Amino acid sequence: MGETCEEQPPTGLLTGPTAGPSTGPSTGPPTGPSAGASAGPLTWGQQDIWRAVVAAAPQERYLTIVRSFAAPRRRPVTVERAALALERLVARHESLRTRLTGPRDAPLQQVSAVVRPLYEVVTEPVEEVCERLAAEPFAYWDEWPLRVAFVVDGGYVRHIVLILCHLAADGHAAELLVKDFRLLLLRDTLPPPDGATPRELAAWQHSDAGRRVSEEAIAWWLEEYARMDPVPPYAHTPEEPRFLEATLRSPGLAAATRAVAARNRVSSSTVLLAAAMRLAGGLTGQRHCGMRVIVNNRFAAGRRDAVATISQEALVVLDLDAPSFDALVRQAWGRAMRAYRQAQYDPYAMEAAVTGAGPGIRSFGCFNDQRLAQEDGAAGASTEPAARRNGAPGEKIEMAAARTDGTGEGKTEVAWTDAMDRNICDFRLHVGGEPGGMEVSCYADTALLPPSGIERYLLDLEGLILEAARA
């Protein structure tokens, strides 16, 4: 990984249990450097992801996006029909025909005009297929950014699994791909896409207009950095592996979050962010605390339907000395709305700017509500967890803690779900789950939070919101 390669077919088909004599077309892309390929800069969002890849390699598979969905029932789907829909999907979206080229420290994206996508035909359970296909990171210079499996039963495709490289799509783009794939299975054709392509977005970002937007965002971030109190040095001896993730599954948290949100006329995501930042301030002793929040950056015309990686981080800074949790929630809503407008920037220029903000002046981790992308996506689409296990795929997850949530709706559970030696982020909070059962994952550097602290943070987050809902 990391070496420049000429345009050539992938080395072979993906392997796995099959339900027929072939796992898919063996045809690769046209060969030769002049076979309809062109190279250009990465989008700012892609640059952010590449920085995360480099920081975590070779354990960057946590960045892989996994989606699965049921094939339409009203029109039975043969393998041939699914393969044709896949070809049309790849032809429709430039990002699926893109690989990296150039040096590892300054890669470019190279787009091919024609690609015959590979796929598997399998009979495995869907969850096992997701785990297996997402188990290894993508080969960014040699592999297309999409792995596909058709899960068959009774001669027809019942489920489709999509494994996406995060350089090709962010969460919102992944949902758009699921939507388009489902429609192509039903209708065969779709109107031309409206969204800007990755190359068009990158070209604008590197223009004078794009640089002005980046400079404005950097200036705003520096003003916010000036409001923050210092974060104290790490207080714990790091463990091995150094980075651990625990996931809380709570049957009552979703309803409690909605109740607090309705009372304050804000989103449920804002309630979770306010709670996350209040607890962060309790750990650091800060009154003015900053946390980065993932923003999909699709507010402008022509970007809502962009299948590309354009999500970036906004910076939300709160004064935690609020008279009540409800007051903090309302403050978080206003601060977040302003921050979302300043989430488009050159990440390398931003890093250089904020590094000089002063000793200990930095944001505390990252907040990512993944439900936002999923709720905007295709109806009926499901989200499978990425392959984020410490050990072999399918390994039993160790239970860390369990308790009743106090709502009478069931038991809250905390499980250890990932472990890594390297990462770009020392604290990360992900929100997801299915309707009626929220999942919140806390991923932390053990020098910042020991395992017991990670558990306690998640349980305190749940307790804070449940108590606020009863108030």
From TrEMBL:
Instruction: Name any one GO molecular function.
Output: 2,3-dihydroxybenzoate-serine ligase activity
Q: Name one GO cellular component term.
A: enterobactin synthetase complex
GO biological process terms, semicolon-separated:
amino acid activation for nonribosomal peptide biosynthetic process; enterobactin biosynthetic process; lipid biosynthetic process
Residue spans with biased composition (Low complexity)?
Answer: 9-26
Disordered: where is this region?
Answer: 1-41
Highest taxon above the source species: Bacteria
Where in the numbering of this chain does the Condensation domain appear?
77-346
Q: Please name the Gene3D superfamilies in this protein's record.
A: Chloramphenicol acetyltransferase-like domain (3.30.559.10), Nonribosomal peptide synthetase, condensation domain (3.30.559.30)
Protein name per Swiss-Prot or TrEMBL: Condensation domain-containing protein
